[in-house]
Amino acid sequence: MISIPHKAKQFVVFLVKLLIVSGAFYFIYDQLAHNDQLDWKKFTVLVKEKANFWGILFLLSFSVANRYLEILKWQNLVRFIKPITIGESTKQVLGALTAGIFTPNGLGEYAGKALYFDKKKTKKIIFLNLICNGIQMLLTIVFGTIGLFLLGYENYAITLIVAFLIIWAISFFTKSIKIKGYSIEKLFIKLNEIPKEIHAKNNILALARYLVFSHQYYFLFLAFDVDLPYLTMMATIATVYFLASSLPSFQFLDFAVKGSVAVFFFGKLDVNEWIVVFISTLMWFLNVVLPVVIGSYFVLKFKPKWN
User: Fold this and answer.
1) What is the pLDDT of residues 100-141, one digit of tens each?
2) Which residue range(s) make up the domain with 251?
3) Could you tell me if residue 9 is inside a domain?
4) Domain count, the chain
5) Buried b vs exposed e over 106-126: b needs ≥16 C-beta within 10 Å?
6) Are the C-beta atoms of 80 and 198 separated by less than 8 Å?
7) Which of 131, 243, 276, 307 has the smallest C-beta neighbourhood within 10 Å, fewest atoms?
8) For the segment 80-100, what is each residue's pLDDT rounded down to a tens digit?
9) In this predicted model, which residue has the larger pLDDT, 1 or 167?
């Protein structure tokens, strides 16, 4: 077996880290510079007109809270394997976010977090990350379905509920069937191995995170003088997040996907299309771009276990 010199390994790792960070920044720049839907002159004028120090600080606080809750979620779940500090959890969450920005549905996050642990723990880390993202997706589905009901799309909501019940019934009757050694029954056994208090805390933090980013969206609409009843606005936001999250996408295209779905639903409420696009872009910038900028530092500082 050919042994790769230590210096050569260091150089390869440095190149990989540089490619990840460069790729992340390129994709961000490309989307912001070449998005035909954005009229930057109009956007600049409006921001200058509406922006003030306290308003910007208020909206930024939601972005900080959003990521901080995700960091707490990850710290809470990982203590099933070993306790980690807030600082370690921050490095892992933001570093993995940067690594996953140009992978489908952020799949790179799974590999990114696993790199911070011993290879023998890779499967457990991927499983914990699945739980971390899974509860967030479940809340998005629940609130999205409620949103569809409130907006008058009862047929779609009922169809989703029926589809869920069918999937649940099929899962129940086929839970013992194994595919490559895995089964639904085994999945539930693994879930039950995690203490209930960890699950409970994970659920509370996920709910808090959902409320934070959905209300950030809400306050952005208020800042742009969109005057709609609270329940109508929140139901539309919940529906947009649910349907947009159901579509396959890349993190760097997140605002385009959510923006397109948002334009459709908010358009039915007579909200100006370009305002919806700008708000979707701002949400992406505040909750993806800024954390990726910080995460890039952690990627560049990352040291493999053998180093």
Assistant:
1) 776 766 677 877 888 888 888 888 998 899 898 889 989 999
2) 17-301
3) no
4) 1
5) bebbbbbbbbbbeeeeeeebe
6) yes
7) 307
8) 998 999 999 999 999 888 877
9) 167
Tokens matching residue 91: 């490095």
| pLDDT the model gives residue 114 | 85
d(CA 293, CA 95): 10
One-letter amino acid at 34 equals H
Residue 69 included in any domain: yes
Here the tokens at position 129 are: 């990350």
Please, are residues 261 and 243 in contact by the beta-carbon 8 Å criterion? yes
Q: Give CA–CA dist 157/165, Å, rounded.
A: 12
CA angle 111-116-118, nearest 5°? 95
Residue 145: inside a domain, yes or no? Answer: yes
SS3 per residue for the chain: CCCCCHHHHHHHHHHHHHHHHHHHHHHHHHHHHCCCCCCHHHHHHHHHHHCCHHHHHHHHHHHHHHHHHHHHHHHHHHCCCCCCCHHHHHHHHHHHHHHCCCCECCCHHHHHHHCCCCHHHHHHHHHHHHHHHHHHHHHHHHHHHHHHHHCCCHHHHHHHHHHHHHHHHHHHHCCCCCECCECHHHHHHHHHHCCHHHHHHHHHHHHHHHHHHHHHHHHHHHHCCCCCCHHHHHHHHHHHHHHHHCCCCEHHHHHHHHHHHHHHHHHCCCCCHHHHHHHHHHHHHHHHHHHHHHHHHHHHHCCCCCC
Given this model, what pLDDT does residue 43 score? 66
Over the chain, what is the mean pLDDT? 79
pLDDT at residue 199 in the model: 93
